UniProtKB/TrEMBL annotation:
Species name: Nonomuraea ferruginea
Sequence ranges assigned to domain NADP-dependent oxidoreductase in this UniProt record: 27-300
Keywords of this entry: Oxidoreductase
Descriptive protein name: Aldo/keto reductase
InterPro entries in the record: AKR_Detox_Biosynth, NAD(P)_OxRdtase_dom_sf, NADP_OxRdtase_dom
Gene3D superfamilies: NADP-dependent oxidoreductase domain
Keyword Oxidoreductase: yes
Length: 330
């Protein structure tokens, strides 16, 4: 596995992140998955305060080797549904959520703390200053944001730049061949701003693995209702399966490799229910998709960015007849 820098920092992070959202207990299977990921060269484990017992499991599994990993967790979602201040991106919830996360993770610092979702009721100034305070206190090393509009992320980092606070180094969003909405604003913003993009749901809740398209419905519980997969989703899954057959790899590997190929800032978050599934997903790092395969996949799941991106791309003539001679910025 190869490594990249986290955002505009010097922190080295592996190209695939390990998602621990479904970890509910320390089992032989969980320990085996952690071992597979470590052996593959992975060094980022992603969890959240709202993922049940996940933080506690991660803390136990990494005990004795915690400093070798980049531990990422999130705050925002409610700790007590009956208490308004037990959720949100304000200072009180940040402090209490972080302290609980540190106890669960059995550590005195978090490498990467994500804001879990944009809180419209808390001023960005308060959130960014409070995040900077926990960084200065040594309890958090880097910060990122998940599930927020591009303008919110850009404004937050502008505030941080102007005031000398810690800026967001990463962005976490859903991204797959089927769910490409982030290509409209969020991904271009991240590339221009130098943000790392952690991509979740790269298999589109299993649709792109082919399990809903090839053969009978899966017996294990899923988040997809039987019969709810659309024809567009089936078409995309069939294209992924065809490319996988041509390359001698699995559909899951093709789907994950597609996200890696789309942008150098994208780091897929891989998770699994079994060590075998994780081993299969991790092998995506060694899959190179030819241009012809990328084209086939794109045609199977048509996507348009819409206004203003498509309009601007088609407006070259507005800048004169010699605009094609301009090399522009590197």
């Amino acid at each position: 596995m190869r490594y990249r820098l986290l955002g505009r920092t010097g922190l080295r992070v592996s190209e695939l992140f390990l998602g621990a959202m479904t970890w509910r207990a320390v089992t032989p299977g969980v320990r085996a998955m952690m071992g597979l990921y470590e052996d593959a060269g992975g060094n980022v484990v992603d969890t959240a305060s709202a993922y049940g017992e996940s933080e506690s499991v991660v803390g136990e599994v990494l005990e004795g080797r915690r400093d070798r990993f980049v531990v990422a967790t999130k705050y925002t979602l409610t700790r007590d549904a009956g208490d308004l201040n037990a959720a949100g991106n304000h200072r009180k919830n940040l402090v209490l959520s972080l302290e609980r996360s540190l106890r669960r993770l059995r550590t005195d610092y978090v490498d990467l703390l994500w804001v879990h979702i944009w809180d419209r009721h808390t001023p960005l100034e308060e959130t960014m200053r409070a995040l900077d305070d926990v960084v200065r206190a040594g309890k958090v090393l880097y910060v990122g944001i998940s599930d927020a509009p591009a303008w919110v992320v850009s404004r937050a980092n502008t505030l941080a730049e102007w005031r000398g606070w810690t800026p967001f180094a990463g962005l976490q969003v859903p991204y797959s061949l089927l769910w490409r909405d982030v290509e409209r604003e969020l991904l271009p913003m991240a590339e221009e701003s130098g943000l790392t993009v952690a991509a979740w749901a790269t298999l589109a809740q299993g649709v792109l693995s082919g399990k809903y398209t090839a053969g009978p419905a899966p017996e294990t519980p899923t988040r997809i209702e039987p019969g709810s997969v659309t024809e567009r989703e089936h078409a995309a899954a069939r294209a992924v399966m065809d490319v996988a057959d041509d390359l001698g790899v699995t559909p899951s590997q093709v789907a994950i490799a597609w996200t890696l190929a789309r942008s150098r800032v994208v780091h897929p978050i891989v998770g699994a229910s079994t060590p075998g599934q994780l081993a299969d997903n991790l092998a995506a790092a060694d899959v190179t998709l030819p241009e012809e395969a990328m084209d086939r996949l794109a045609q199977a799941a048509p996507f348009t960015r819409g206004f203003p991106a498509d309009f601007i791309a088609e407006a070259g003539g507005a800048f004169g007849t010699r605009i094609d001679r301009l090399d522009g910025r590197p």
